[in-house]
Amino acid sequence: MSTAITDAPAKKKLSPRRRAQRIRWTQYALLVAFVIAFALGADWGQIQSVFFRSDLVKATLTEGLPNAFKNTLVYTAGAFVLGLLLGTVLALMRLSSVGPYRWISTAWIEFFRGLPAIVVFIAFSLLPLAFEGLVIPYDPYGTVWVALGLVASAYMAETIRAGIQAVPPGQIEAARSLGMPAGVATRKIILPQAFRIITPPLTNEVILLVKDSSLVYVLGLSAAGYELTKYGRDLASSNANLTPLVVAGFCYLVITLPLSYVVRRMEARQKKER
């Protein structure tokens, strides 16, 4: 008598799409569980007292915040202009056929890209000790513009160099065939196209400068020269509460979030044009 042997049905495999869906829903479930656990376990009264005291929010907004907000914008704008001008010169020197220009530009870029910005600020705060009688115009704005602008110029130089190299070589060849001098062709044809290409990265540089302006505190400024972080720190220390720093942090978001949105729109537009 023969015995029939039947194989067990093979386990059905999930398709890659279903597997991805399960992983995604598992991640959502874990995130929801974490949020619920945090919401149930957090001491909301203590959080409100330490980070969001209503009286300190009002005091922070009304005492010196407008001046600190303005100073942050002024520091950023001045450093960006200086960094852009110097960065353009450095980028052209880096692409020059003259050896010493390339060496100087490379040394400058590598030096200031390798140093933390706070070290540059500390060095500038000590300059009057090294050079007696040295006065930087429009202090403290001039000091911040120069210190932050030097650091920014090193990063912008590489961005601008990449933009110049992204311009089709035929553009400069066509200009030279028409008898246009190299300097005029660079100024009127190459640089405008290069800056159009690198506008999103340069806007990102503005965002970085806004955040780097928080290092101004090492210069030992008076209250009139405070930027957002220094203002928030001093007020937080005097009140033994972190609410002023939280308010200052939200002010940075007021500046950087619109800029981030502009960068995304410009990048999307460039992709469509390609």
Automatic annotation (TrEMBL):
Protein name as catalogued: ABC transporter permease
Record GO terms (molecular function): transmembrane transporter activity
InterPro entries: AA_ABC_transptr_permease_3TM, ArtM/GltK/GlnP/TcyL/YhdX-like, MetI-like, MetI-like_sf
Gene3D superfamilies recorded: MetI-like
Coiled coil: none
Pfam families noted in UniProt: BPD_transp_1 (PF00528)
Primary localization class, coarse: membrane
Membrane-crossing segments per the record: 73-93, 114-135, 245-264
Alphabetic keyword roster: Amino-acid transport, Cell membrane, Membrane, Transmembrane, Transmembrane helix, Transport
Cellular component, GO annotation: ATP-binding cassette (ABC) transporter complex
